[in-house]
Amino acid sequence: MTTDRDVVVRDADYLRIIIHGTTAFELLRTGLEFDLFEILESSGGMDLAKVAAAIGTGEQPARVLLLGLTSLRLLEKRGDRYVNGDLVRRKLLKSSPRFLGPLVDMQARVINASMGDLAASVRAGANVGLRHLTGPGTTLYERLTAHPELQEVFYANMGDASRNAFDQILDRYDFSGARRVVDIGGGDGTNSVKLALRHPHLEVTVFDQESVTRLAAGRIEDPGLRRRIRFQAGDLFTDPLPEGADTILFFHIFEIWSLERNTELLRKCHAALPDGGTCLVYNFVSDDEGTGSMSAGLLSPYFLTLASGEGMVYSPRDMEQALLAAGFSRVERYQDMGFSHALVVGHK
Ligand SMILES: C[S@@+](CC[C@H](N)C(=O)[O-])C[C@H]1O[C@@H](n2cnc3c(N)ncnc32)[C@H](O)[C@@H]1O
Hints:
Layout: H1 11-19, H2 21-33, H3 36-43, H4 48-55, H5 59-71, E1 75-78, E2 81-84, H6 86-91, H7 101-115, H8 118-124, H9 140-144, H10 148-172, E3 180-184, H11 190-198, E4 203-208, H12 210-217, H13 223-228, E5 229-233, E6 247-251, H14 259-272, E7 278-284, H15 294-307, H16 316-325, E8 330-334, E9 341-347
Helix pairs in contact: 4-5, 7-10, 10-11, 14-16
Bound molecules: S-adenosylmethionine.
S-adenosylmethionine is lined by residues 139, 141, 158, 162, 185-187, 190-191, 208-209, 212, 235-237, 251-253.
Protein backbone atom coordinates (compact mmCIF):
# COMPACT_ATOMS: atom_id res chain seq x y z
CA MET A 1 0.00 0.00 0.00
CA THR A 2 1.24 3.51 -0.73
CA THR A 3 0.09 6.76 0.83
CA ASP A 4 0.36 10.42 -0.21
CA ARG A 5 3.54 10.55 1.81
CA ASP A 6 5.34 7.68 0.07
CA VAL A 7 8.12 8.50 -2.39
CA VAL A 8 7.84 5.93 -5.17
CA VAL A 9 11.08 5.16 -7.02
CA ARG A 10 11.86 2.73 -9.82
CA ASP A 11 14.02 -0.20 -8.66
CA ALA A 12 16.94 1.04 -10.79
CA ASP A 13 16.77 4.40 -9.01
CA TYR A 14 16.51 2.68 -5.63
CA LEU A 15 19.78 0.89 -6.39
CA ARG A 16 21.24 4.17 -7.62
CA ILE A 17 20.46 5.85 -4.30
CA ILE A 18 22.29 3.03 -2.52
CA ILE A 19 25.32 3.06 -4.83
CA HIS A 20 25.53 6.85 -4.89
CA GLY A 21 24.56 7.00 -1.21
CA THR A 22 27.48 9.24 -0.24
CA THR A 23 26.54 11.72 -2.97
CA ALA A 24 22.86 11.69 -2.01
CA PHE A 25 23.79 12.27 1.63
CA GLU A 26 26.15 15.14 0.76
CA LEU A 27 23.52 16.83 -1.41
CA LEU A 28 21.13 16.83 1.52
CA ARG A 29 23.80 17.91 4.02
CA THR A 30 24.98 20.71 1.72
CA GLY A 31 21.40 21.93 1.39
CA LEU A 32 21.31 22.16 5.19
CA GLU A 33 24.76 23.77 5.42
CA PHE A 34 23.72 26.55 3.01
CA ASP A 35 20.35 26.99 4.78
CA LEU A 36 18.82 26.39 1.37
CA PHE A 37 15.63 24.79 2.69
CA GLU A 38 15.06 27.66 5.14
CA ILE A 39 15.70 30.23 2.41
CA LEU A 40 13.26 28.57 0.00
CA GLU A 41 10.62 28.25 2.70
CA SER A 42 10.76 31.86 3.85
CA SER A 43 10.82 33.21 0.28
CA GLY A 44 8.06 30.94 -1.01
CA GLY A 45 10.45 29.62 -3.70
CA MET A 46 13.16 31.08 -5.94
CA ASP A 47 14.56 30.71 -9.44
CA LEU A 48 18.17 29.63 -10.07
CA ALA A 49 19.65 33.16 -10.17
CA LYS A 50 17.96 34.13 -6.90
CA VAL A 51 19.06 30.90 -5.17
CA ALA A 52 22.67 31.44 -6.28
CA ALA A 53 22.57 35.03 -4.96
CA ALA A 54 20.91 33.95 -1.70
CA ILE A 55 23.43 31.20 -0.91
CA GLY A 56 26.37 33.27 -2.22
CA THR A 57 27.59 30.92 -4.96
CA GLY A 58 27.93 30.97 -8.73
CA GLU A 59 24.92 29.86 -10.77
CA GLN A 60 26.64 26.72 -12.08
CA PRO A 61 27.34 25.14 -8.65
CA ALA A 62 23.89 26.24 -7.45
CA ARG A 63 22.42 24.52 -10.49
CA VAL A 64 24.25 21.27 -9.61
CA LEU A 65 22.87 21.44 -6.08
CA LEU A 66 19.32 22.23 -7.19
CA LEU A 67 19.33 19.50 -9.84
CA GLY A 68 20.57 16.93 -7.33
CA LEU A 69 18.07 17.87 -4.62
CA THR A 70 15.20 17.98 -7.10
CA SER A 71 16.14 14.58 -8.56
CA LEU A 72 16.03 13.23 -5.00
CA ARG A 73 12.48 14.70 -4.65
CA LEU A 74 13.53 16.94 -1.79
CA LEU A 75 12.79 20.02 -3.91
CA GLU A 76 10.13 20.56 -6.55
CA LYS A 77 10.11 22.92 -9.50
CA ARG A 78 7.07 25.14 -10.14
CA GLY A 79 7.66 27.08 -13.36
CA ASP A 80 11.09 28.66 -12.83
CA ARG A 81 10.87 28.47 -9.06
CA TYR A 82 12.36 25.81 -6.79
CA VAL A 83 10.28 25.07 -3.68
CA ASN A 84 10.62 22.66 -0.76
CA GLY A 85 8.97 19.26 -1.12
CA ASP A 86 6.73 17.75 1.55
CA LEU A 87 9.56 15.70 3.10
CA VAL A 88 11.69 18.81 3.59
CA ARG A 89 8.79 20.58 5.28
CA ARG A 90 8.24 17.68 7.65
CA LYS A 91 11.84 16.79 8.51
CA LEU A 92 14.46 19.24 7.26
CA LEU A 93 13.33 22.69 8.40
CA LYS A 94 14.43 23.78 11.86
CA SER A 95 10.75 24.38 12.65
CA SER A 96 9.72 20.90 11.37
CA PRO A 97 7.82 18.63 13.76
CA ARG A 98 10.79 16.22 13.67
CA PHE A 99 13.87 18.10 12.44
CA LEU A 100 16.60 15.62 11.43
CA GLY A 101 19.49 18.13 11.39
CA PRO A 102 21.14 16.67 14.55
CA LEU A 103 21.11 13.18 12.96
CA VAL A 104 22.65 14.52 9.74
CA ASP A 105 25.35 16.24 11.81
CA MET A 106 26.07 13.04 13.71
CA GLN A 107 26.36 11.05 10.48
CA ALA A 108 28.61 13.64 8.86
CA ARG A 109 30.94 14.39 11.76
CA VAL A 110 31.07 11.17 13.78
CA ILE A 111 29.90 8.15 11.77
CA ASN A 112 30.48 8.39 8.03
CA ALA A 113 34.30 8.28 8.00
CA SER A 114 34.18 4.92 9.81
CA MET A 115 31.71 3.25 7.45
CA GLY A 116 34.42 2.53 4.87
CA ASP A 117 35.69 0.04 7.45
CA LEU A 118 32.49 -2.01 7.53
CA ALA A 119 33.95 -4.95 5.58
CA ALA A 120 37.08 -4.96 7.76
CA SER A 121 34.86 -4.81 10.87
CA VAL A 122 32.70 -7.70 9.64
CA ARG A 123 35.86 -9.70 9.00
CA ALA A 124 37.46 -8.84 12.35
CA GLY A 125 34.24 -8.88 14.41
CA ALA A 126 35.48 -5.60 15.87
CA ASN A 127 35.02 -1.84 15.48
CA VAL A 128 37.87 -1.21 13.04
CA GLY A 129 36.28 2.16 12.15
CA LEU A 130 37.19 3.55 15.57
CA ARG A 131 40.69 4.17 14.18
CA HIS A 132 39.40 7.47 12.76
CA LEU A 133 38.98 8.90 16.24
CA THR A 134 41.90 9.34 18.64
CA GLY A 135 41.46 9.02 22.40
CA PRO A 136 41.17 6.53 25.26
CA GLY A 137 39.38 3.18 25.36
CA THR A 138 37.93 0.80 22.83
CA THR A 139 34.45 2.26 22.37
CA LEU A 140 33.17 5.40 20.68
CA TYR A 141 31.77 6.60 24.04
CA GLU A 142 35.21 6.54 25.65
CA ARG A 143 36.90 8.15 22.63
CA LEU A 144 34.33 10.97 22.59
CA THR A 145 35.51 12.07 26.04
CA ALA A 146 38.66 13.35 24.28
CA HIS A 147 36.60 15.39 21.77
CA PRO A 148 34.16 17.69 23.59
CA GLU A 149 32.89 19.23 20.33
CA LEU A 150 32.04 15.79 18.89
CA GLN A 151 30.58 14.73 22.23
CA GLU A 152 28.21 17.72 21.87
CA VAL A 153 27.25 16.53 18.38
CA PHE A 154 26.65 13.01 19.74
CA TYR A 155 24.39 14.13 22.62
CA ALA A 156 22.57 16.71 20.49
CA ASN A 157 21.43 13.81 18.32
CA MET A 158 21.01 11.23 21.10
CA GLY A 159 19.09 13.70 23.27
CA ASP A 160 16.92 14.69 20.32
CA ALA A 161 16.08 11.06 19.49
CA SER A 162 15.40 10.25 23.15
CA ARG A 163 13.29 13.37 23.67
CA ASN A 164 11.01 12.31 20.84
CA ALA A 165 10.92 8.61 21.59
CA PHE A 166 10.59 8.77 25.39
CA ASP A 167 7.22 10.58 25.33
CA GLN A 168 5.66 7.31 24.26
CA ILE A 169 6.87 5.54 27.40
CA LEU A 170 5.66 8.38 29.57
CA ASP A 171 2.24 8.03 27.96
CA ARG A 172 2.05 4.23 28.19
CA TYR A 173 4.07 3.03 31.19
CA ASP A 174 2.78 3.52 34.72
CA PHE A 175 5.53 4.91 36.99
CA SER A 176 3.20 5.50 39.96
CA GLY A 177 4.64 2.51 41.88
CA ALA A 178 8.26 3.67 41.39
CA ARG A 179 10.14 5.86 43.89
CA ARG A 180 13.85 5.75 43.08
CA VAL A 181 15.03 5.38 39.52
CA VAL A 182 18.56 4.80 38.23
CA ASP A 183 19.18 5.77 34.61
CA ILE A 184 22.22 3.71 33.65
CA GLY A 185 24.26 5.07 30.76
CA GLY A 186 21.85 7.98 31.13
CA GLY A 187 23.84 10.23 28.79
CA ASP A 188 22.95 13.91 28.82
CA GLY A 189 20.06 13.24 31.22
CA THR A 190 17.32 13.93 28.66
CA ASN A 191 15.23 10.94 29.75
CA SER A 192 15.76 11.53 33.47
CA VAL A 193 14.74 15.17 33.19
CA LYS A 194 11.58 14.31 31.26
CA LEU A 195 10.73 11.57 33.74
CA ALA A 196 11.29 13.80 36.78
CA LEU A 197 9.24 16.61 35.25
CA ARG A 198 6.30 14.29 34.52
CA HIS A 199 6.46 12.50 37.91
CA PRO A 200 7.29 14.89 40.76
CA HIS A 201 7.33 12.00 43.28
CA LEU A 202 10.41 10.40 41.65
CA GLU A 203 14.08 10.68 42.54
CA VAL A 204 16.43 9.83 39.68
CA THR A 205 20.15 9.09 39.53
CA VAL A 206 21.96 9.36 36.20
CA PHE A 207 24.91 6.96 36.04
CA ASP A 208 27.43 7.45 33.23
CA GLN A 209 31.08 8.23 32.46
CA GLU A 210 32.52 11.16 34.42
CA SER A 211 32.66 13.71 31.58
CA VAL A 212 29.11 12.82 30.55
CA THR A 213 27.63 13.26 34.02
CA ARG A 214 29.37 16.64 34.21
CA LEU A 215 27.82 17.66 30.88
CA ALA A 216 24.40 16.40 31.98
CA ALA A 217 24.54 18.08 35.40
CA GLY A 218 25.49 21.39 33.79
CA ARG A 219 22.26 21.38 31.81
CA ILE A 220 19.90 21.37 34.79
CA GLU A 221 19.19 24.83 36.15
CA ASP A 222 15.87 24.35 37.94
CA PRO A 223 16.68 24.04 41.71
CA GLY A 224 13.71 21.68 42.26
CA LEU A 225 14.95 19.33 39.59
CA ARG A 226 18.51 19.60 40.87
CA ARG A 227 17.30 18.27 44.23
CA ARG A 228 15.62 15.23 42.62
CA ILE A 229 18.16 14.35 39.91
CA ARG A 230 21.57 13.18 41.04
CA PHE A 231 24.59 12.18 39.04
CA GLN A 232 27.00 9.39 39.76
CA ALA A 233 30.07 8.82 37.62
CA GLY A 234 31.29 5.31 37.04
CA ASP A 235 31.90 2.45 34.68
CA LEU A 236 28.97 0.16 33.92
CA PHE A 237 31.11 -2.95 33.98
CA THR A 238 33.64 -2.34 36.73
CA ASP A 239 31.88 -0.06 39.27
CA PRO A 240 28.92 -0.81 41.50
CA LEU A 241 25.59 0.61 40.33
CA PRO A 242 23.97 3.35 42.43
CA GLU A 243 22.15 1.82 45.41
CA GLY A 244 18.53 1.98 46.48
CA ALA A 245 16.74 1.94 43.11
CA ASP A 246 13.41 0.17 42.60
CA THR A 247 13.47 0.95 38.87
CA ILE A 248 16.38 0.86 36.43
CA LEU A 249 16.27 2.53 33.03
CA PHE A 250 18.38 0.65 30.48
CA PHE A 251 17.78 3.03 27.58
CA HIS A 252 19.77 2.78 24.31
CA ILE A 253 22.30 0.56 26.07
CA PHE A 254 21.21 -2.90 24.88
CA GLU A 255 22.09 -2.00 21.26
CA ILE A 256 25.69 -1.30 22.17
CA TRP A 257 26.76 -4.72 23.48
CA SER A 258 26.78 -8.39 22.54
CA LEU A 259 23.91 -10.48 23.94
CA GLU A 260 26.35 -12.08 26.41
CA ARG A 261 27.54 -8.73 27.76
CA ASN A 262 23.94 -7.47 27.93
CA THR A 263 22.97 -10.50 29.99
CA GLU A 264 25.96 -9.83 32.27
CA LEU A 265 24.89 -6.17 32.68
CA LEU A 266 21.25 -7.11 33.26
CA ARG A 267 22.35 -9.62 35.91
CA LYS A 268 24.10 -6.72 37.66
CA CYS A 269 20.87 -4.68 37.44
CA HIS A 270 18.87 -7.63 38.78
CA ALA A 271 21.23 -7.93 41.76
CA ALA A 272 20.89 -4.19 42.49
CA LEU A 273 17.06 -4.29 42.58
CA PRO A 274 14.77 -5.34 45.47
CA ASP A 275 12.09 -8.02 44.94
CA GLY A 276 9.33 -6.42 42.87
CA GLY A 277 11.85 -4.05 41.22
CA THR A 278 11.80 -3.47 37.48
CA CYS A 279 14.31 -2.95 34.70
CA LEU A 280 13.07 -1.09 31.61
CA VAL A 281 14.99 -1.99 28.46
CA TYR A 282 14.16 0.48 25.73
CA ASN A 283 15.80 1.10 22.37
CA PHE A 284 15.61 0.80 18.62
CA VAL A 285 14.50 -2.69 17.61
CA SER A 286 14.49 -4.96 14.59
CA ASP A 287 11.57 -7.30 13.98
CA ASP A 288 11.71 -10.77 15.53
CA GLU A 289 12.19 -12.35 12.08
CA GLY A 290 15.39 -10.38 11.36
CA THR A 291 14.06 -8.86 8.12
CA GLY A 292 13.83 -5.16 9.07
CA SER A 293 13.01 -2.42 9.72
CA MET A 294 15.20 -0.42 7.39
CA SER A 295 16.08 1.78 10.35
CA ALA A 296 17.33 -1.31 12.24
CA GLY A 297 19.27 -2.54 9.22
CA LEU A 298 20.97 0.79 8.60
CA LEU A 299 21.74 1.54 12.24
CA SER A 300 23.28 -1.84 13.13
CA PRO A 301 26.55 -1.40 11.15
CA TYR A 302 27.27 1.71 13.25
CA PHE A 303 27.44 -0.43 16.41
CA LEU A 304 29.70 -2.99 14.75
CA THR A 305 32.00 -0.64 12.84
CA LEU A 306 32.31 2.23 15.29
CA ALA A 307 30.43 2.25 18.60
CA SER A 308 31.61 -0.96 20.26
CA GLY A 309 32.36 -3.62 17.66
CA GLU A 310 29.84 -6.00 19.17
CA GLY A 311 26.31 -4.53 19.23
CA MET A 312 23.44 -4.20 16.80
CA VAL A 313 19.75 -3.32 16.75
CA TYR A 314 18.22 -6.44 18.34
CA SER A 315 14.68 -7.78 18.34
CA PRO A 316 12.27 -7.55 21.29
CA ARG A 317 12.63 -11.33 21.58
CA ASP A 318 16.39 -10.93 22.14
CA MET A 319 15.66 -8.37 24.87
CA GLU A 320 13.15 -10.69 26.58
CA GLN A 321 15.52 -13.66 26.47
CA ALA A 322 18.41 -11.64 27.92
CA LEU A 323 16.22 -10.37 30.79
CA LEU A 324 15.04 -13.89 31.60
CA ALA A 325 18.59 -15.26 31.38
CA ALA A 326 19.68 -12.52 33.80
CA GLY A 327 17.21 -13.80 36.40
CA PHE A 328 14.12 -11.63 35.92
CA SER A 329 11.03 -13.75 36.62
CA ARG A 330 8.60 -12.08 34.21
CA VAL A 331 8.89 -9.89 31.11
CA GLU A 332 6.39 -7.55 29.50
CA ARG A 333 6.67 -6.26 25.95
CA TYR A 334 5.43 -2.87 24.71
CA GLN A 335 5.63 -2.88 20.94
CA ASP A 336 4.63 -0.38 18.26
CA MET A 337 6.12 2.45 20.25
CA GLY A 338 6.92 4.43 17.09
CA PHE A 339 10.42 5.59 16.10
CA SER A 340 11.23 1.85 15.56
CA HIS A 341 11.44 1.45 19.33
CA ALA A 342 10.17 -1.17 21.77
CA LEU A 343 10.14 -1.38 25.56
CA VAL A 344 10.65 -4.68 27.35
CA VAL A 345 10.21 -4.61 31.13
CA GLY A 346 11.83 -7.21 33.37
CA HIS A 347 10.19 -7.79 36.78
CA LYS A 348 12.24 -9.19 39.67
C1 LIG B 1 23.66 5.48 23.30
S1 LIG B 1 23.96 6.44 24.69
C2 LIG B 1 22.38 6.42 25.52
C3 LIG B 1 22.13 7.62 26.37
C4 LIG B 1 20.76 7.63 27.08
N1 LIG B 1 20.52 6.43 27.85
C5 LIG B 1 19.64 7.84 26.08
O1 LIG B 1 18.83 6.94 25.91
O2 LIG B 1 19.55 8.93 25.51
C6 LIG B 1 24.92 5.32 25.64
C7 LIG B 1 25.45 5.90 26.94
O3 LIG B 1 26.15 4.86 27.64
C8 LIG B 1 27.30 5.43 28.23
N2 LIG B 1 28.30 4.38 28.42
C9 LIG B 1 28.87 3.60 27.48
N3 LIG B 1 29.75 2.75 28.02
C10 LIG B 1 29.77 3.02 29.36
C11 LIG B 1 30.48 2.48 30.47
N4 LIG B 1 31.35 1.49 30.30
N5 LIG B 1 30.22 3.00 31.68
C12 LIG B 1 29.31 4.01 31.87
N6 LIG B 1 28.60 4.54 30.84
C13 LIG B 1 28.83 4.06 29.62
C14 LIG B 1 27.77 6.45 27.23
O4 LIG B 1 28.62 7.42 27.82
C15 LIG B 1 26.45 7.02 26.71
O5 LIG B 1 26.06 8.17 27.42
